[in-house]
Amino acid sequence: MISTIRVKSDSSKELQIDANASSYISSLGPGQILPKGINSSLRCVGELNLAVSLEKAVLELKVLGARNLIPDDSEAIPDTYVKCYLKDGDRLRHKKKTRVVKYCLEPQYNQVLKYSVIISTI
């Protein structure tokens, strides 16, 4: 499955998933949660392209790339990366990060992040 997730930023420059569409919120399955502090009034700062697969207790998240990134108020082009968290309720199970792509507003990562999971908990 390949999906594009819109990314938002608040004044502290933290990126969050865009929840402007109630269809996104209503499509969350068991165990899926909105990021902490999600706010639909935040401005969109780009899109993230992901592919997700689950096979034999391994969750693979392929981070393909980002596009339409909008830099913050400084005029410098940012160094970008994607940080992914696998949580069980409020408990953080795994945290992984892609490599850094320097000075790019349309970075291509093409990187697979693998998580060992117990199928019954997904």
TrEMBL record:
Listed GO MF terms: kinase activity; small GTPase binding; transmembrane transporter binding
GO BP annotations listed: calcium ion-regulated exocytosis of neurotransmitter; positive regulation of synaptic transmission; regulation of membrane potential; regulation of synaptic plasticity
Positions of the C2 domain: 44-122
Signal peptide, first to last residue: none
Highest taxon of the lineage: Eukaryota
Keywords recorded for this protein, A-Z: Kinase, Synapse, Transferase
Gene3D superfamilies: C2 domain
Localization: Synapse
GO cellular component labels: cytoskeleton of presynaptic active zone; presynaptic membrane
Pfam families attached to this UniProt entry: C2
This protein's name: Protein kinase C, brain isozyme
Species in which this protein is naturally found: Culex pipiens (House mosquito)
